[in-house]
């Protein structure tokens, strides 16, 4: 692994950081999350059309830039620094790789160029609160999390005219505004139980709900910068992702692979947030005075900040390695990197609130936004101990068998 960045990678980071400093400060973030989309459409247009972020890791054949997950992770690290709300995670990190891996050539040709340009956003909808299980981050995703033929999941049945879906999905990232839904549904009954992915291309109405049996409700979440929605499907017309001949593809394996790369990107994003909140805390303790001197000069404060710095740098190393590993066929380490980064963000943001003397959790201060991002991401993609436990199980560390090397 070459730990140095290329000139192109450095340019991506520099350009994106300069743009976000100008157009995505704390006040702009607060305004953006209150809009109907949950993000600034003008900023998203700039990120998509001028910087090409949605197509960063897509081939030039589909209008992309032709880079790798590493570049996407570096871009996400910069977005994490400013907590910029955008559909990049749902569209480019979760949706596009699934379309690329499972879609037919016609589906890829029709949809991926529109995703690369930013014209189309996508969202992955899995039943209930099973997102991390579906992505293979906190458990085996070959179980019946899609419904297993029982109520509570999403069921798919084949008709003469195609496929129909019925059920509900929660925790759908940017699901209220996405133009394309990738829905995981159970089909086949008990005789041939399996989970497949389907495309639902339902136009959105002005009130945010869908048409033709699709209802979308934006949820109130702890972290407003990470929009979530509940999707209800009532006999909805859908299109199988892929074709009938590819219905036996290992969907669970593809989801786990996408989950690993998504974990690496999320880890980089969390590192960016942790690094920024640590920077702001260091700036503050240099200015805040107590007993006639800056509190940053006290040894106890220095020790706490030094511990945070080490934690953030360790998480950054893990995130970079995980992003590199996804493109080289190395072992899947995204879950471990994500656990390290989420823990670093949680500890750093908590200490920031404390070292700001409590004002860090006031609505007027930005520190509480980072604390909520830390708590929200751990609820969505963790918790940390489950990420590590599943990684240990996959490596057979405590199973009594041969340890994987």
Give the helices and strands, then pairings.
Layout: H1 7-23, H2 26-33, H3 41-49, H4 69-82, H5 88-102, H6 105-117, E1 122-125, H7 131-134, E2 154-159, E3 162-173, E4 180-187, E5 194-200, E6 214-218, E7 228-240, H8 251-287, E8 289-290, E9 293-294, H9 299-326, H10 334-355, H11 367-381, H12 384-394
Parallel strand pairs: 1-4
Antiparallel strand pairs: 2-3, 3-7, 4-5, 5-7, 6-7, 8-9
Looking at this protein, list some descriptive labels.
405 residues, alpha+beta, two-stranded antiparallel ribbon, 12 helices, 48% helix
Describe this structure in words.
The protein has 405 residues and is of the alpha+beta class. 48% of the residues lie in helices and 15% in strands. It is built from twelve helices and nine strands. It has helices at 7-23, 26-33, 41-49, 69-82, 88-102, 105-117, 131-134, 251-287, 299-326, 334-355, 367-381, 384-394; strands spanning 122-125, 154-159, 162-173, 180-187, 194-200, 214-218, 228-240, 289-290, 293-294. Strands 1, 2, 3, 4, 5, 6 and 7 form a seven-stranded mixed beta sheet that branches. A two-stranded antiparallel sheet has the order 8-9.
Let me know the average pLDDT.
Answer: 89
Per the principal axes of the C-alpha atoms, what is the gross shape? globular
Largest sheet: 7 strands, mixed
Name the assembly state.
single chain
Number of helical segments with 4 or more residues: 12
Order of helices and strands: HHHHHHEHEEEEEEHEEHHHH
């Amino acid at each position: 692994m070459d730990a140095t960045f290329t000139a192109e990678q450095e340019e991506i980071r520099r350009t994106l950081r300069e743009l976000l400093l100008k157009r995505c400060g704390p006040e702009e973030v607060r305004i953006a999350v209150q809009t109907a989309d949950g993000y600034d459409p003008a900023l998203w247009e700039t990120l998509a059309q001028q910087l090409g972020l949605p197509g960063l890791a897509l081939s030039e054949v589909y209008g992309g830039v032709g880079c790798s997950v590493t570049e996407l992770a570096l871009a996400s690290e910069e977005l994490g620094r400013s907590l910029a709300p955008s559909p990049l995670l749902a569209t480019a990190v979760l949706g596009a790789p699934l379309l690329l891996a499972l879609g037919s050539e016609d589906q890829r040709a029709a949809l991926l160029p529109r995703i690369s340009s930013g014209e189309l956003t996508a969202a992955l909808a899995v039943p209930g609160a099973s997102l991390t299980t579906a992505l293979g981050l906190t458990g085996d995703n070959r179980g019946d999390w899609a419904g297993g033929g029982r109520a509570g999941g999403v069921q798919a049945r084949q008709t003469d005219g195609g496929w129909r879906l019925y059920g509900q999905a929660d925790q759908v990232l940017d699901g209220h505004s996405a133009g394309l839904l990738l829905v995981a549904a159970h089909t086949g009954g008990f005789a041939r139980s399996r989970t497949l992915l389907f495309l639902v291309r339902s136009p959105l109405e002005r009130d945010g709900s869908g048409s033709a049996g699709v209802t979308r409700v934006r949820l109130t979440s702890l972290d407003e910068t990470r929009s979530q929605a509940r999707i209800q499907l009532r006999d909805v017309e859908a299109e199988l992702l892929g074709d009938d001949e590819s219905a036996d593809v290992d969907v669970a394996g593809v989801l786990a692979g996408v989950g690993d790369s998504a974990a690496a990107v999320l880890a980089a994003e969390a590192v960016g947030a942790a690094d920024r909140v640590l920077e702001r805390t260091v700036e503050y303790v240099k200015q805040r005075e107590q007993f006639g001197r800056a509190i940053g000069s006290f040894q106890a404060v220095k020790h706490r900040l030094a511990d945070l710095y080490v934690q953030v740098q360790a998480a950054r190393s893990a995130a970079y390695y995980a992003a590199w590993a996804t493109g080289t066929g190395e072992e899947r380490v995204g879950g471990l990197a994500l656990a390290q980064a989420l823990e670093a963000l949680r500890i750093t943001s908590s200490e920031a609130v404390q070292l700001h003397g409590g004002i860090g959790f006031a609505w007027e201060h930005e520190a509480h936004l980072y604390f909520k991002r830390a708590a929200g991401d751990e609820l969505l993609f963790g918790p940390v101990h489950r990420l590590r436990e599943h990684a240990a199980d996959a490596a057979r560390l405590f199973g009594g068998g041969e340890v994987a090397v």
